[in-house]
């Protein structure tokens, strides 16, 4: 088994602080009550004593922890953003209904409105795949998708169904 030296570990923390925070959160959530001493941490994270900085070797022990953390985050985010996504999909559907009635009345510019709504629907599909279905590579991408969903919803902050928790 190989491990990572202190300098490489600090480099990882500096380069990817959110990843380091996720790993630390996963370790703390993985067990035990009370404070954890250095030896117990080394037993839980055996790669902290190792001297190699191989990226594949570092990735190997972290994969299980990261996979669990990503699944937990996706589940929590899916539940938290379910209402927001439904709200946005309802506003897009309303927009399409308005565009259809405008087309029936012969108003100009309907095709542009439909293209804009289709683009918004495609953005929603992508953001939902990231936030709910976990199709992201880093925690930062997930956080960005959450923020973009909130920004999309902020255009409808005047609506009765808009919730203050969705403010970006």
Describe this structure in words.
With 168 residues, the chain is an all-alpha fold. It has six helices and no strands. The protein has helices at 6-15, 17-30, 38-44, 55-104, 110-131, 139-154. Helix 1 crosses helix 2 (17-30), helix 2 packs across helix 4 (55-104) and helix 4 (55-104) packs parallel to helix 6. The radius of gyration is 22 Å and the shape is elongated. The two termini are 44 Å apart. The mean pLDDT is 76.
Order of helices and strands: HHHHHH
Gyration radius from CA atoms, angstroms: 22 Å
Main beta sheet, described? none
What sort of overall outline do the alpha carbons produce when their principal axes are compared? elongated
DSSP strand tally: 0
**Helicity range:** over 70%
Oligomer: single chain
Distance between the termini: 44 Å
Q: Which structural class do you get from the secondary structure elements?
A: mainly alpha
Q: On the 0-100 scale, what is the average pLDDT? A: 76
Low-pLDDT ranges = none
In percent, how much strand structure appears in the residues? under 5%
């Amino acid at each position: 088994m190989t491990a990572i030296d202190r300098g490489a570990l600090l480099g990882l923390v500096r380069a990817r602080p959110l990843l380091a925070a996720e790993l630390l959160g996963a370790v703390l959530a993985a067990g035990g009550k009370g404070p954890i001493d250095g030896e117990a941490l080394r037993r839980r994270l055996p790669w902290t004593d190792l001297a190699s900085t191989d990226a594949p070797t570092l990735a190997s022990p972290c994969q299980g922890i990261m996979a669990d953390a990503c699944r937990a985050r996706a589940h929590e985010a899916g539940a938290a953003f379910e209402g927001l996504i439904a709200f946005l999909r309802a506003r897009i559907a309303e927009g399409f209904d308005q565009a259809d009635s405008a087309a029936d009345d012969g108003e100009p510019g309907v095709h542009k409105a439909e293209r804009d709504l289709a683009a918004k629907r495609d953005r929603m599909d992508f953001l939902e795949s990231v936030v709910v279905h976990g199709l992201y590579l880093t925690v930062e991408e997930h956080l960005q998708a959450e923020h973009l969903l909130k920004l999309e919803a902020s255009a409808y902050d005047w609506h009765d169904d808009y919730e203050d928790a969705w403010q970006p």
